[in-house]
Design goal:
The chain is an alpha/beta fold. The chain has helices spanning about 1-15, 20-25, 45-65, 80-85, 140-150, 170-180, 195-205, 210-215, 235-250, 270-275, 290-305, 310-320, 325-340, 345-355, 355-365, 365-380, 380-385, 390-410, 415-420, 425-440, 445-455, and strands at about 30-35, 35-40, 70-75, 160, 190, 220-225, 255-260, 280-285. The longest helix is centred in the N-terminal third of the chain and has 23 residues, at about 45-65. The structure holds adenosine-5'-diphosphate and magnesium ion (MG).
Length: about 450
């Protein structure tokens, strides 16, 4: 049983940098292998979230390969850690682990008693040194650098927004890393808005809000909050965050926020928070240009010791445009395949190896996926967009969706009509015209459409 995990680890070691392997995979402890689930545990919620967010697919793939059948990995926070962590105790008891594999007590390091902010793991790959600057991100980069050099002196808060995989979390980690080196006395809190929300809920349940408040409001010098858009609609957490924000800002402590939308675009956000988000500097990160994408690939290849011919870098940079995470993922996969098959990294090999990526992307940008995104954005049902209701709350999103399908897929007007529940092509044409015309004058519509376009894959 344990062999599966050992072999999976060996597979992972071949695919990630030594640094990443030591940081993220070594600390994972095997609890049990039961059925098709490999249960692992770690000491820390941040760490668990991090691993889940960044390495879930790799872990699943590795155990599947090692076992020779479909398996998946479940990473959780150790019970022991939970018992110690004041702010992270779950109300529900955890189920007993099935005793398939004995738990080696000696192998479990004692959980550290302190739950200090300073203890959160920083991704070693996310520093200012490794951040490639180009026209699409230079403003955000410069602002982050200014904040790291002189916290609470320049922009407070600094609000960075942009689509997924464009380096927002990277910049937050870079700020934290740089501050740790130059201002070791500062207590830095890095927390995702989701984690903050969970902490609020748990501390309310445990009636330990006083400790929670003290931790964020008085025992914190720099607050880095990732993905604040998830605060949308979470009234109690927003209220708590409002007071945290005020306490820190009044005490001239630096606050940095990231989001996938501008403060204006975050729905169901209290006005007083929205306005505070705009007190400092708001800056965006856009998808990097071709040259920057090539530079990112080259820098990543150099760090990971991958021999990357320019022609292959160009090919990849043309293929993956809107998401740096995907861009890097394509490179890593490619070099893993090449190594595995003992083949040289050429454009032909890249074309062959990444064929499914290309096909997936074509599929991802389908009429259906645009319908889904638009429905989500305007909070209406996909079936309404496909339907015939003419109420403006439905008909405008429907027109926007048609316009986006025309702009971003290869579909003809009749094909789009068909994808919208069998509408006539003339309906589609007139909707597209209407939106195009409105875009010239209607600023709100333009920002809405831009917000949706940022979420389009590819
Ligand atoms: P976000 O938080 O905006 O979704 P991340 O910060 O997680 O995106 O970035 C996704 C991946 O892309 C990370 O591996 C990050 O290091 C990398 N990345 C993004 N932008 C850059 C850049 N300008 N230079 C180097 N790497 C980058
Ligand atoms: Mg992020």
């Amino acid at each position: 049983m344990k062999e599966i995990w050992d072999n999976a680890l060996a597979g992972i070691r071949a695919r990630v940098t030594v640094e990443n392997f030591n940081t993220y995979f070594r600390p994972l402890r095997l609890v049990v292998i039961a059925g098709d689930a490999v249960e692992l545990e770690v000491d820390d919620e941040f760490f668990r979230d991090w691993v889940r967010e960044h390495y879930q697919a790799l872990l699943d793939e590795a155990v599947t390969e090692a076992a020779g059948r479909a398996m998946h990995v479940d990473v959780r926070v150790s019970d022991r850690r939970k018992a110690n962590a004041l702010a992270t105790i779950d109300v529900e008891a955890d189920p007993e682990p099935a005793a398939d594999v004995p738990i080696d007590d000696a192998a479990v390091p004692a959980a550290s008693e302190t739950r200090d902010f300073a203890a959160f793991p920083l991704n070693p790959a996310y520093s200012f040194d490794t951040f490639v600057v180009g026209p699409a991100n230079e403003m955000a980069h410069a602002a982050a650098l200014a904040v790291a050099q002189d916290p609470a002196r320049t922009f407070n808060p600094l609000f960075v927004y942009g689509g997924t995989g464009l380096g927002k979390t990277h910049l937050l980690h870079a700020i934290a890393r740089s501050l740790r080196a130059t201002h070791p006395e500062l207590r830095i809190a890095y927390v995702s808005a989701e984690e903050f929300t969970n902490q609020v809920i748990k501390n309310i349940q445990r009636q330990s809000m006083d400790a929670f408040r003290e931790r964020y409001r008085t025992r914190c010098d720099v607050l880095l909050m990732d993905d604040v858009h998830v605060l949308a609609g979470k009234e109690r957490t927003q209220e708590e965050f409002f007071y945290t924000f005020n306490a820190l800002h009044n005490a001239q402590k630096q606050i940095v926020l990231t989001s996938d939308k501008t403060p204006q675009e975050i729905p169901q956000l209290e006005e007083r928070l929205r306005s505070r988000f705009q007190w400092g500097l708001i800056t965006d990160i856009k998808a990097p240009q071709f040259e920057t994408r090539v530079a990112i690939l080259q820098s990543k290849a150099e760090r990971d010791d991958i021999e990357l011919p320019d022609a292959v870098a160009f090919y990849l940079a043309k293929l993956v445009r809107a998401n740096v995470r995907e861009l890097e993922g394509a490179l890593i996969r490619l070099s893993a395949y090449a190594g595995f098959r003992g083949r040289a990294l050429t454009v032909e090999f890249a074309q062959e190896a990444l064929r499914d990526l290309v096909e997936n992307r074509a599929r991802a940008l389908s009429i259906d996926s645009i319908l889904k995104l638009v429905a989500e954005h305007f909070d209406v049902k996909v079936s309404d967009l496909r339907g015939a209701r003419r109420h403006r709350a439905i008909s405008q999103p429907r027109s926007v969706a048609m316009y986006l399908c025309r702009k971003h897929t290869q579909s003809s007007y009749p094909a789009i009509g068909k994808g919208f529940g069998g509408k006539d092509h003339s309906t589609v044409i007139s909707a597209c015209r209407k939106v195009k015309g409105a875009l010239e004058t209607d600023h709100t519509l333009r920002t809405e459409i831009e917000a949706i376009e940022r979420k389009l894959p590819g």
